[in-house]
Each structure stands twice: as structure tokens, then as C-alpha cells.
């Protein structure tokens, strides 16, 4: 395996865009609008920041809202997200103390971005007069705040697929001009943008205005992949650690059998293995009984969605590995019925880790299976010719030396996302202490 394997940064933004469905419809739209508008204002003001970093930090300015609300008040998360275009109402209802700004900053500060860019997220609801930071952070934060205000009002006016009319534009301009928490030069740039009809595509269309030639190492890219995995897994209480658990076990197995480089590839491919499930309705994911034939069609489609989402993002290496996690050695799997000699080793490895993780997690139709029982089930699948027996035995050896229940516990999700700030996040999210 080539240790210098590089991943296009642009693929992250493409995948983020594709997650704008179901519960994340308005969240992703808002995020892209804020990133597009912020970058345009920063460019007009000629602020000394790299365009890529401004875009990425502002794109992720609200990611903490998902992490907080989906855990702290899941019922309202399901009730409001994807159904109510008024994101401002959602924030005021579910995060009155603005914890999500802090949580977003904590997540983004783990990404290899300039500290000023990531810190701008912390103050995206704060009037510039109340920011006690150096001027560059104050101004950039104010640009994000202004873009956020514009997008929130746009969603109110256009969220239900209405067109932006002249009266709405006038109201948005007026609100920006009257906002005492916005710096005058930022106001001027924002109003200019709103009056320039050639720029309206930046906020009326839902396409990211992001183009980058930058390539990342797997280690660098994993910070981004973990954010996507968290957004995916936090849609449901039944999957909150699934992608991370598969990734951790895949990494352990690959390190044991193949070495560090292949383990890094297995980790990333596992983080993204279920990304297509973002399009699977919760009504199917949460069904307590047996799925009907038509429901099973939708459920099985997630592997195809995973494949094409990764392909469109320019991640062909991951698409080939990740989308094969329901294939089986005897050809009985899906989507293409591959057989053993048609599958590379990492596909076989992730299949086993996915089954193991799924068995040991609670599902709407059953309780989690104990580790030893899960290993027995997987071993029987290997005996039946469906899973790779050599890899299964290696997993059993690892289980003899490590507490795998501990290795796949939910706390590791937050350790990966927040590093040494986990305790701070726990204090901001109700119910968290009961889950870790």
C-alpha cells in the first residue's frame, strides 16, 4: 500500500452537499448558503485568509447543532429538522444558550485549518462589539454572522420552494443595515452582494461554490470523514456509533494482518461505508417488525447510494471497498452478487466488521448481542461459506486480548471528534453522561 495516498479535499464538500436530504434538507442548504456568502464577502473585503479555509469553516458553522440536538432532544430533532425551513426557529427552540457554536468550533478545530478560521465559528451569533479577539478574528466572525443572518432570512422566505421576491430582498437589506452588531464595512459588502443580481446564484442555488486542487493525506481526510459519519450516524439512536465502530474494528484487524498503511485505508473506507444510508427514511430504519419486500428494496439501496455518492465525489478507491460490505463470499450478497475470488481483501474485512458491529448494537427489533455470541454467529457464517474464515479467526484472537465492547463504545465517537474537549461537550449536551 502506498503511504503517500492522497484524497481530494473537494470530495468532502461534494459529499456534504449530497447529505442534504430528509432531516438534513434545510441544514445542508443553510450551510452551503452561509459558506458561499461568507466567502464572497471575505473576497470583496480582501481579508487575508485562504479561500478554502474560509469556505470549509463557514460550511461547518452549525454542525454542532446536529450533534447537540440529536442527542439532547431526539424527538424534537426528528419533528423539526427537514420539516421546518426556519432554521432560526429551530436554534431558538432547541439551543437557546448557543452551545452549538462552541461545539461546532470544537469539532472544526480538529481539522487542519487556520485557527482564526475555525475560531470564527465560535462567534457566528455574537455582535462584533462583544468579541474579545484580534481584529482578523472579529472581522471574519462578523462575515460569518452576516452570512448566517442572510441565509436564515432567505430560508424563511424561500424555504417552502417559494421564489425570492423584491419585497423580501428589501427586508433582508434593511435588517442587515439596522443590525448594530455588524461592522460597517461588512454591511456594505453584504448589501452590495444582495443588490448584485449576478451574485444571487450564490444563495438561491444549492450548489457549493467550492473548487480546490488541494489533496490530503488519509490522516488529514479522516477528520472530514468523521464529521460526515457523525452526521449520518446521529440521525438515529440505533446507529450513533456504527460507522465509528466498524472503522475502529477494521483498523485493528487490518493493522494485525496487513500493516499500518492498509489499516489507514480500511479506517477511512469504513467511516464512509454507510454514507448512502443518509437517503434511507427513518421509518424503515426504526421499524420494529420485519420489513416488507418494498421496504427491503429501499433498505438495500443504501449500498448503491453509497457507491454513487463516493463515485461522484471522486473517491473511487473508497467506493469499491465501502459499497461491498453486504456482498458475501458465496455470491449470496448484494448489490452485485460478487464471489470470494472477485473481492479484494479489504472488502472481505469490512464485511465482517460491519456484521460484528451491527450484531453488538441495539436495533428496534432486538437487543444487542454479547461479544462472544456475535463472534459465534460470525464464525458460523464463515463455516457456511459467506464470510472469510481467516479474518474471522483474527477477530477472535483480538477479542481474546482486548475488550471489544469497550473498543466500540459510544464514548470513542466523541473522543475522535473532540479529542481532549470531551468533558466540555458532555456538560453542554443533556443526557450525554448517561450514554458514555
From TrEMBL:
Q: Name one GO molecular function term.
A: cyclic-nucleotide phosphodiesterase activity
Name the UniProt key words of this record, in alphabetical order.
Hydrolase
PROSITE patterns, A to Z: HD_GYP (PS51832)
Gene3D superfamilies, alphabetized: Hypothetical protein af1432
Instruction: Give start and end of each HD-GYP domain.
Output: 217-410
Which InterPro entries does the record match to this protein?
Answer: HD/PDEase_dom, HD_domain, HD_GYP_dom, HDIG_dom
The GO biological-process annotations, alphabetized, read as:
cyclic nucleotide catabolic process
NCBIfam families, per this entry? HDIG
Q: What is this protein called?
A: Metal dependent phosphohydrolase
Q: What is the lineage of its organism?
A: Bacteria, Thermotogati, Thermotogota, Thermotogae, Thermotogales
